[in-house]
Amino acid sequence: MRMLSALALAASLAVAPAFASAAQASDNVSNGGVPVAMPSASAKQRFIDDLIARMTLEEKIGQLRLISIGADMPQPKLIKEIAAGRVGGTFNSVTRSENRPLQDAAVKQSRLKIPIFFAYDIVHGHRTVFPISLGLASSWDMTVVKQAARVAAQEASADGLDATFAPMVDISRDPRWGRTSEGFGEDPYLVSQSARASVQGFQGTSPANPDSLMAFVKHFALYGAVEGGRDYNVVDMSPMRMYQDYLPPYRAGIDAGAGGVMIALNSVNGTPATSNKWLLRDLLRDEWGFKGVTVSDHGAIEELMRHGVAKDGREAAKLAIEAGVDMSMADQQYLKQLPDLVKSGDVPIRFIDDAVREVLGAKYDMGLFADPYRRIGNAPQDPKDVYADDRLHRDAARDIARKSIVLLENQHDALPLKKAGKVAVIGPLADSKLDMMGSWSAAGKPAQAVSLLQGVRDTLGDKGQVTYARGANITDDPRVVEYLNFLDWDNPEVVQDKRTPQQMIDEAVQVARNADTLIVAVGESRGMSHEASSRTSLMLPGSQLALLQALKATGKPLVVVLMNGRPLDLNWSKVNADAMLETWYAGTEGGHAIADVLFGDYNPSGKLPISFPRSIGQIPTYYNQLRIGRPFTPGKPANYTSQYFEEDSGPLYAFGYGLSYTTFDVSKVKLSAKTMTIGATVEASVTVRNTGKREGETVVQLYLQDVAASIVRPIKELKGFQKVSLKPGESRTVQFAIDERSLKFYNAKLQYVAEPGDFNVQIGLDSQNVQQATFTLK
Ligand code: NOJ
């Protein structure tokens, strides 16, 4: 309704505002999350066409600018730029009171009164921080992924934000890459499912809803395949691998309705994504039918010069706009170059108009023309304290974090621990609230996070005794410390204990000797698994390994709690720990969630969304590698097979692996038919039984192998999964419908086909231990 009145008004005025009026709109804001009915596509088109017809070239170019608040421009200058119609949107603000004056400048001062939008990197939570995406994916529970995004959207929209630069759906098969932590792992199917769930969570039923955020799927495309895991590096990849493995997650996010796409910083087969017409027009728009807005990554248009595909800013801006980069993020080139490029005729105005149309379309879809203040609200209703604890969703955070934890080892049922006796909590990450938040922790406040030490104390209460020692610094390497603290020396990410390593270890050993059980939190500081944090080693830093070794020597039961954002080399811990939990960075309620698992209030059910290599030399270790002529077969001689002779083949912990406090048994696979015709389905089923003494959940995983095809196909591919909960002794039949789509792949001509022949159906509780049956596609 409000949109229609805006249209009527726009039609009746010479220089019409692009929405009703700020005052009127902000009076109308409080519709409490009720979905807003949007006018039809043609009404949207008419509205935008009318607006574009009234815009000057400068105003159009202004809409293409996405400004980083603070980093690019101080607020007073920003307000002037917005009032002059030279800004389309901003990012990096997190409160309504920060955003209100900026929106006022847009809708009360600029000539056409076009609202701006407010974006932020809300990747795994806004004020309440959930586990990092790798952790969310470890739940193998899409309701969990969706819920984390939904809560984040509710919190962020209540802080005046309209959009998030998430989900990050880059497949990562190289743990050296620090941004592995931001994604959902190595597998096309699991990451695609996560992409869909995440977009649905952020956007709700519509990105126009006052409690929704528009999702910008990123980084398009293939960013996770950077060479050597070196951030920002090149990607050189066969079209088949691209289509089969790396592109599906972006497509899934887009098909789920994501309104935006962020373009990757890397090049793809010789052309930077930012100047890649094939990627941004032919594939994204023509082939996939994407109708939303594209934004460059930070400074990426400028970087076209450093990639060596543009000799100057003028060429860079021309390449980007022609390739299909609608908005430039934190980059001056559109502002500086586009006016003359258009005036000289070097860039046809239609490129600018098309980009502006997408930007305005996104704002329209966010509901901002109907009401620019729909998420900013009125000042009197602003939260008195944005950090108030009752604004957090602690129950959801604890529940989601428990589900993201993976039990890697549990020798002689070392876990769960009894709630009694003397427990020593040790390690550089044991009492770190900051690291618990993980990278990209949005507006999360570390002081509101629960550390592991706190979680153990709260859980044990007066039933036992908890002692603590830090035991080691994250690392003693000054070069690494300097790198990690580079951004902000006033608030260092890594604070070094001034004692010598030996003094710290001595104290920890002393504490350990007086305890019954040791819970030792080791891993990476959050900055070690972040943008620009590529590593040449997956080992625990030496300081931490030395601590573990000293603690092991005490002979006390050793429970290793890992906090990290990538697969690590866990050889030592696998052999020496009595139990080992992968907790990633578990978020605001991390300490409670980990304690719930340690003391058995929650039976772990997480599974690895990425393979853990035995050593860094073994990378890549992803499970769905292409088949080869001389594969290594366990138990057979290794000579003249594809393997490394100094160590065992295969990952240390496989994709899909994770233990429980109970045990499960999987029956042989039953198929509803031995043959399948195109258009039909085959039902594959197994019976899963809880053979242990506790109720528990596990993830039943379906893999398919194409026995012989026109091109080389993977060893196996995940095609379905179901999480089941079983009481002791209980069994359940789990069924998967295999249809033609599950058998399809991109052939040498990039046609998406299912080829007749045999298919092995493998079902199990991880990617390696499976039951198998075979059917034939006729
Ligand atoms: C650069 C990062 O690559 C991207 O993921 C992020 O969204 C932007 N900076 C904005 O913060």
UniProtKB/TrEMBL annotation:
Keywords annotated in UniProt: Glycosidase, Hydrolase, Periplasm, Signal
E.C. no: 3.2.1.21
One annotated GO molecular function: beta-glucosidase activity
Short name of any one Pfam family annotated for the protein: Glyco_hydro_3_C
Annotated protein name in UniProt: Periplasmic beta-glucosidase
Catalyzed reaction equations: Hydrolysis of terminal, non-reducing beta-D-glucosyl residues with release of beta-D-glucose
Signal peptide: 1-22
InterPro entries, per the entry: Cellulose_Degrad_GH3, Fn3-like, GH, Glyco_hydro_3_AS, Glyco_hydro_3_C, Glyco_hydro_3_C_sf, Glyco_hydro_3_N, Glyco_hydro_3_N_sf
GO biological process: glucan catabolic process
GO cellular component: periplasmic space
Gene (UniProt): bglX
NCBIfam families linked to this entry: PRK15098.1
PANTHER family for this protein: LYSOSOMAL BETA GLUCOSIDASE, PERIPLASMIC BETA-GLUCOSIDASE-RELATED
Family: Belongs to the glycosyl hydrolase 3 family.
PROSITE patterns: GLYCOSYL_HYDROL_F3
Ranges of residues in domain Fibronectin type III-like: 698-767
Compartment(s) where it occurs, according to its Swiss-Prot or TrEMBL record: Periplasm
